[in-house]
Design a protein that fits this description.
This protein is an alpha/beta fold. It has helices at about 5-25, 30-40, 45-55, 130-150, 165-170, 180-190, 210-220, 235-245, and strands spanning about 80-85, 95-100, 105-115, 115-125, 155-160, 195-200, 230. It is about 45% helix and about 20% strand.
């Protein structure tokens, strides 16, 4: 509809009056200059971006990290436990997770300790358009999947992360992204198998052995061509970011 010049002109006329008030400019100032001064995109540009956004995210063949359908939501009474982190935890198994993003790609790294001894390190790559938070969440999921069927003397796990936003997402019962729901489902499964799973925030770059072990290798995993891509869903916000660029 906006391809017709008359419709676009009507939108510009309406918005122009608002821009003049905001910029306190003369009526002779061009519409383009008013948009720059006011710092607001033209309405017709926003409408076109919204149209392209819907067209791209609903296109077949590309998986986007959409919200889970309501019928597949986990019951709100089921949630994960978040505690304050500390190095000398009584938990038998401690998992340190980290995610990293650069121009080369996105990757996750996990270090697993049993009875304070390093027993395993894991790496995985994500789609290059994924975000840091997704990499951190994927690291948590992969760590839980690895430990679920392992043989341990005690079934107690403490998962450490240096991103508060990741823990806030796990506590938020209004968010229903794919990875978050998979983590919650995995925790519920492990608790049914008599595992005690808890999550903890630790400050980055403060000498935590496990955190330092995962930081640099996560960046190295980005450029590794031998690691398979473990998560291909693209965050929908990445589309908006590309529009703004």
């Amino acid at each position: 509809m906006l391809n017709k010049h008359c419709y676009k002109a009507k939108l510009i006329r309406i918005q122009r009056l608002i821009y003049i008030r905001i910029a306190k400019a003369y009526r002779t100032v061009s519409n383009e200059a008013l948009c720059v001064i006011a710092g607001i995109k033209p309405t017709h540009t926003k409408i076109e971006e919204a149209r392209r956004y819907c067209e791209i995210t609903k296109r077949k063949g590309i998986q986007y990290d959409r919200k889970i359908e309501v019928k597949n939501w986990i019951h709100p009474a089921k949630h994960v436990k978040i505690i304050e982190g500390h190095e000398n935890s009584p938990h038998y198994i401690q998992e340190y997770t980290d995610g990293s993003k650069s121009d080369s790609g996105v990757a996750s790294r996990i270090a697993i300790f049993s009875d304070n001894n390093l027993t395993a390190t894991l790496k995985c790559r994500l789609n290059g358009r994924s975000f840091n938070n997704q990499a951190e969440q994927m690291a948590i999921l992969k760590a839980l999947e690895y430990i679920q069927y392992s043989r341990a003397d005690e079934n107690t796990v403490l998962v450490h992360t240096d991103r508060r936003i990741t823990l806030q997402l796990l506590k938020n019962r209004k968010k229903h992204t794919h990875i978050k729901e998979q983590i919650t489902t995995k925790v519920i499964e492990m608790e049914q198998q008599e595992w005690i799973v808890e999550f903890s925030w630790i400050k980055a770059h403060t000498g935590h052995r496990g955190n330092e072990l995962t930081d640099q290798p996560a960046k190295e995993a980005i450029s590794s061509k031998t690691i398979d891509e473990c998560y291909s869903r693209i965050p929908k916000s990445a589309v908006w970011s590309e529009f703004n660029e």
